[in-house]
Amino acid sequence: MNPNPAVGVLYHWLGGLASGSFYVPYRGVKGWAWETFWLAGGFFSWIIAPWFLAGLLTKDLFAVLHEAPASSLMWAVFFGLLWGVGGLTFGLTMRFLGLSLGMAMVLGLCAAFGTLMPPIFSGIFMSQVVGTASGRVILLGILVCLLGIAVAGLAGISKERNMSTEQKQAVIKEFDLKKGTGVAILSGVMSACFAYGLAAGDPIKAITVKHGTDPLWQGLPVLIVVLVGGFTTNFVWCVWLNMRNHTGRQYFTSVPSHVGEGGTALETALDAPSREMAEHMPSSVAVLQAPAIKKVPMLRNYLLCALAGTTWYFQFFFYSMGETQMGQYKFSSWTLHMASIIIFSSLWGIGLKEWKGAGTRAGGLLALALLLLVGSTVIVGYGNYLGLNH
Fold this sequence. Notes:
Number of domains: 1
């Protein structure tokens, strides 16, 4: 299969669309605490969808995993565990820095570490990246992406200045720059570990291709292994929250439990740590003003969680496809992934009127951020195209 960076960028955009969209079905879940619907959807994200699609689209899945080197499996699971820690500590970043500043710091670090560390550790950074024209173009695209993330953070800060006092208190109550910076570094670096897990799974890709799998689907068995680690971290956290908040019975009964007057549990930044969920989580004020429910729509909730969880998985389904199209610079896929997520998350935010009343300055900064992020994907794609011709 001949790589095609233009097609690869398209796949990464589709992955970004999936990541930016998966939280929308969760907005329709009623009467469940965050930990309940996150774990219910997570079974589809981390277990059901990965195994089903890998079994459907690859050859001899169980034989491939059996033949995979133990070290490759171990490191892929380990980095998946660390990636899960990154998602959980994201909530603490929101707690200490607020949504906009915290997100800009975490996403910037995640993009930088997730993209640059694999080629540095593999020893090709100076020779194949800095030392080639195509590599330098890709580096330019990475810098433009980081600039776009920074501008998006400024847009969010400008938006927060136009919030009411109640809204600001709901967003950030315990501002602490020193603690927040430390947690943001931890969260950003740990979140980048997903990219390391995929790189650790390269031997698995080679084995599945040897068994006759189309190279386009070679990353699917690796996703199974990495997501086992991510599932473990999230499962432990959600079950602990279920026990702490006495919300475990929500999985089995339609009787509302542990909810506010609005029928929806009052989440904190620590309870609902995922980046996308925190970005679009309704404020406590809005929750308390929502109409109460007398009966939890169990079937509807499970169907919405299944839709959300499967959509979440598709971000990495398309990521693995896009990575196969990037040639020798497949590490740049992480930048394309991060940029695409922010682009489509922001577009959903605009569509859902989350930026209404944010002010002209915030709107202008957001438009500039989107322009930079789209531009970064084009630049990175062009750098990969140059790499194919040299």
